[in-house]
Amino acid sequence: MAKTFRIGGIHPHDHKISAGVPITVVAPPDEVVITLAQHIGAPATPVVSKGDQVRVGTLLGKAGGFVSANIHSSVSGTVTKVDQITDASGFKKPAIFIKVEGDEWEDYIDQTDTLITETELDPKQIIDRIAEMGIVGMGGAPRAAIKMGEQDPGGAEQIMGNCASVLLVCSIVLTAFFLIFHFSKLDRKSYFFHFIILLFQVQKKPLLYWNGYVMSFSGGYVLSLMISQEISEGDRLSHRLYIFPL
User: What pTM does this model have?
Assistant: First the structure.
């Protein structure tokens, strides 16, 4: 077993307990709670109420703002209530409570194994369908993809350039912070030690182990974000890192 920390740590054997266990299908629970705030921005506005029958794919919440997303049911059954629930963030969010009954799917869902590779929809119809289905993305890539769909490669390049600029600045700041953390006098009496505990709300003992990890991580943090992007220009590709003013 590889030793990753010089002052201890956990070093499990190099194998998985589930390696020889076959994959099984987990039965659905008796009740599911589907939050209406599974994305950034405004929570979805509920469009169902207590007593409504829903199926897999039924629209439960409609996008409630410029930055929002539709929410659909992942089970079939009866809506028992529309209420709030405390999620992993510790804050209360609006949610749909569903008593699971059967396994009924909406008719628009294609359950076959056929892969459809062609469509007669135009770009706007495709974008509208993606929004209708509640499909969301992360970071600047979806925005750049939308710009490419609007035949605006310049706008897409600027979005990706701005993302690269922010990542680069953040990586430099975090690397400097990690290096200060590593080379500071890290003991239980130092002010910096207690500052980290208050900032990240971590326990003291794991923080000592983390110090050994910081150096190996920060060494390549900036370089890992200095990536080139392949931008198609007609029949050729250019490899460049686009940096635009924010």
Answer: 0.57
